[in-house]
Every structure is written in structure tokens, then in C-alpha cells.
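Researcher: We're teaching a course module on how sequence relates to structure. For the next exercise, students receive a sequence and then see the predicted structure as C-alpha cells, so they can try to spot secondary structure elements on their own. Here is the exercise chain.
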Amino acid sequence: MNNQDFTATIFVDATPQDTFNAIKNFRAWWSEEIEGTTDQPGGEFFYHYKDIHLCKMKLEVMEENKKLEYLVLENEFNFIEDKTEWVDTRLIFEITRQGSKTKVVFTHQGLVPEYECYNVCNDAWTGYITNSLYKLITGGKGEPNPRDKDGFNAELAKKWQLN
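Model: And here is the predicted structure for the students to work with:
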């Protein structure tokens, strides 16, 4: 059976080290609404987009300049029946040098077409990886979701305590 996990690949004019460092900086390419640690093994962070998507992740694998792997510990969507579809899935970033370019393969392991959120998530990840992360790596500035103008929601964060 073919692998059905969501995957996106980009090639960038940057070193594997610069690419690795950019990926770990989720606030610069995914969302400014991230609380916690995204760049240390064992570190946990909380992401949310309004009350539409809330997620808690943990960095489980970090191979310097080669691989990052994050486990989704908790997840909640407000727009689908099974609000926890991402729980126990993994965000995997594999970095390799190919000629004069650095290749990044992003796989959301466990995000499959059978999931109700797949089409929305496919579109979102495609934009974040091929646009925002690409721009961060190649130009120094990504296009993350901006911080909510009303500020960080402390009540919401309390529910998603970080260890």
C-alpha cells in the first residue's frame, strides 16, 4: 500500500544548518501564537489559531542539521466531528544536501486522506511549507499567522499546560 501521509518538499539556496535553524523557529514561519519551546529535545509547545485549532506538541527527535520530529500530544479542531484527529501524529522534517541546494521533506505522518480535516490541513501545510518556511529560509522572513490583536488567551493556555 502506498504511503498516504501528507508530504511537501522544497529545495532552498541555504545550508543545512541555516535550514535546520529556520525550521525549529516555528514562530517565524507557522504562527506567532506559540507558547513554549520548539527547539530543544523534549521541549513542548502550544499552538493555537483563535479557537479554531489548538495543538500541543513535543520535539522528540533532533539530529543536528538532518532531522526534526515532533509528536502531537493533544489536538482540537472546532470544525470537524473528530476534534482530535492529529493526536499521536508526527511532524517530520528531513534535511539533505542535493548539489548546491538543500532539500527539505516535510511529512505529517498520520495525516491521511481519510481524515475529515485532510483537505483543509493539506492546503494549510502546503502554504506554510512551500511559502512561509521557504521564505524564512531563503529571505530571512516567513509569513506566520500573526499574534492575535487581543493578546494571548491565558484561559485557553491554562487548559493546555506545558510540562
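Model: If you want an answer key for the exercise: Helices lie at 16-24, 26-29, 118-139, 154-159. The chain has one domain: 6-159.
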